[in-house]
Amino acid sequence: MPTEQWDPTAAGLAPTGHTDEVWRPSSQGSRPFTGPSIGRGGLGAGLVEVPRVPYRDPATAVLDDPVVAENKRFCSHCGSRVGRGDDGVPGLTEGVCPRCGTPFSFVPKLRPGEVLGGQYEVLGCLAYGGLGWIYLARDHNVNDRWVVLKGLIDTGDPAAMAAAVAERRFLAEVEHPNIVRIYNFVQHPDPVTGTMIGYIVMEYVGGNSLRELALARRRPDRRIEPMPLPQVLAYGLEILPALGYLHGIGLLYCDLKPDNVIQTDEQLKLLDLGAVRRMDDYESPLFFTAGYSAPELGRRGPSIASDLYTVGRMMAVLSFEFPEYRSTRKHSLPGPDEVPLFEIFESYHRFLLRATHDQPEQRFHSAEDMAEQLVGVLREVVALGGEQPPPRLSRMFSTERRPFGPRDELLAPEPHEVAVGLPVPQVDAGDPSAGFLATVTGVDPVAMIQSLDNAPTVTPEVLLRRARALIDLEDLSAATSALDDAAEDVPGDWRVSWYRGLVAIAQTKPKEAKVAFDAVYDILPGEPAAKLALAVSAELCGDHGAAARYYELVWRTDHGYVSAAFGLARTRLAQGHRSWAVEILDSVPDSSSQYLSAQIGALKVRIRDRRPAELTVADLVEAGNRLDRLVLDVQKRTKLAADVLGTAFDWVLAGKPGGDHGVSTVLGVELTERGLRFGLEECYRTLARLASSVTERVALVDRANAVRPRTVR
Predict the structure, then answer these.
(1) Same domain for 62 and 41
(2) 160 and 297 both lie in a single domain
(3) Which pLDDT score is estimated for 527?
(4) Contacting residues for 87 by C-beta, under 8 A, at least 6 apart
(5) SS3 state of residue 124
């Protein structure tokens, strides 16, 4: 993929960076982000296995006949096609661009056996890149190690070349496990002009570029099979820490593409640091590749946001068929109607939309933020593939404040119950009041508001915490007022949208809540909390299909969100899938505080609200066995026993539809009308003795008398 060049001075970008046209992200990265070391080599984040790429012996990588294909010959200055053949006559490998007059040469400048800098012996050509041929050499001063030589741009001016070499020496200080190591910079005369040309000396990384790995996946019809999505996400998670490291030391990579990333064994490395530049550099030529580069480069120049844009574009190109990425969709993505992958993995689609947004301000603010959301997306993809990812705490949200919906009866939760149960945003550590707020956690809403009245400074976090306390107190008008104030301080902040969604839920306006939570999902596509909020909003709107989709996504991804299990069971039951509802409730782990509620719910789902003709004796036996396994107090156990026996009684009176298959008892009671009457009578009399009021006791005694079998005197 040819790299293009852009002159920032010619584009009118002020060198000082103080014009209105120059955008700077809110955070340039005060510290390098190297990312966590997870799993073997980090590749796959411990969640997926990425196929290994064997180390390539450098001796086998040298080209026997280094020739640049004619369809890859372009002018280094204006990008015009050069060196092309005509009527069967091969094109020239050296000449002058007919459009701009710039000389071109596709002949290697270095020959095998030449020694650069008195220590680097050239062995041959490895590949042709945007700035010319790349060579393999041996470093005779350091144990004959393999190194790679790559030329800097040849300006034809010896003084300018010397300055360029000096300018690029800062790259030797770059040290990150996912970035190719720069050893040295040397100069060597051009074999024709004698002009000194600068070369970067880099470590040799034996493997395959992501472009080579992608091209190797050709189908029989010659079309390229996209890479598996988990593999692409794993690549993104490996690349982002490297970019974050560069950003943290004030550098921009500028030209990320599959050609510039190599995998060897289980490690990924960024190659080709020729386009790397300092963030405050407004004079050096900028190199980028069409189809991957951000749309604002020509107007605003490079930034952290434009670097992160290239990550999103590269992932898109690798993960689905995207032939128009350099033409009609050079700065856009196809929709779910064209890409089935987006239909299946909505979070991935939203991730790419934010990463490649046409407005830099709307993209991820840092490589660390982007990686955080990408981990969440990968966890969902793995979960949808049938594996349960390990638990993981969010950096953006708390856990569920309290589960909503887990009760013996699978009824939709009350709006206020949802509003005070959903997770809430974590406190921004950079807020001036973060320290103060840490001292007032865990207090009741009234005490919280009293403490906030004495806050030393009214900051956005103080306003958001006030809104949260007012929602808990159901003072929704005052909560809305606090959010309006916060919105003025931090316009467009997703946390304001989140709390507005909670207010809308509490006001029984689930459609408004859905809009607010959907906006949060766009910004934080890897967060389970956003999907949980959308799920319950859809459920309260009566859209059980959408609710079930989001509940299932959350529950499959993280069993810590137990509200999702109960919500999914409710929606599946509403859709008529009783057995699914039971299966979902059974998936609540026994370590959960809501395990008993889930088991009781599963028992009731199995037998309640069913006509006798829908029941089988197996349903009754399973319900009885389930009850026997539960550790319950006498009153709750007896109530459930009455439910099971009452259902069995109706089934027996209906003539035992489907037959009893030789089963004679349930819960130790005979499956006969007389036996079940005795069993129910005993349950009601036991409950009457445990009743908390006279009225309840009388009613239960009456039920016992009504159901007991008639006796002959």
Answers:
(1) no
(2) no
(3) 98
(4) none
(5) strand
Nearest alpha-carbon partner for 710 in 677, 672, 671: 677
For residue 463, what are its two tokens? 């306003």
- pLDDT value, residue 42: 61
Could you give the residue ranges of the DSSP H alpha helices within 134-222? Answer: 158-168, 210-215
Look at residue 306 and tell me whether its pLDDT is greater than 70. yes
pLDDT digits (tens, 9 = 90+) for 616-663: 999 999 999 999 999 999 999 999 999 999 999 999 999 999 998 999
Q: Which amino acid is at 347?
A: S
**Which of 172, 205, 238 is at the close of a domain?**
205
Number of domains present in the structure of the chain: 3
3-class DSSP state for residue 362? helix
CB 604 within 8 A of CB 627: no
262 and 181, same structural domain? no
Q: Which domain holds residue 232?
A: 4-53+221-384
The distance from CA 652 to its chain's CA centroid, rounded to whole angstroms, is: 53
Give dist(CA 487, CA 174) in Å, integer.
40
E strands, 644-701, are 665-666, 669-670
DSSP, residue by residue, 273-335: GGG-EETT--SS-EEE-TTTS-TTHHHH---HHHHHHHHHHHHHHHHS--TTTTTTTTT----
Q: Catalytic positions, please?
A: 255
Structure tokens at 129: 């890149």
Residues 528, 554: Cα–Cα separation, whole Å: 6
24: pLDDT strictly greater than 60: no
Res 6 pLDDT > 60: no
Plot region of 54 (φ>0 → left; ψ -120 to 50 → alpha; else → beta)? beta
Domain identity same for 360 and 303 = yes
CATH code of the domain in which 180 resides: 3.30.200.20
Amino acid at 287: F
Q: What does the pLDDT look like over 489-528, one tens digit per residue?
A: 999 999 999 999 999 999 999 999 999 999 999 999 999 9
Mean pLDDT of the chain: 90
In angstroms, how far is CA 286 from the centroid of its own chain? 30
Q: What is the pTM of this model?
A: 0.89
Could you read off the pLDDT of 535-588 as tens digits, one per residue?
A: 999 999 999 999 999 999 999 999 999 999 999 999 999 999 999 999 999 999
Which residue among 174, 205, 236 closes a domain?
205
Helix (H, G, I), strand (E, B) or coil at 268: strand
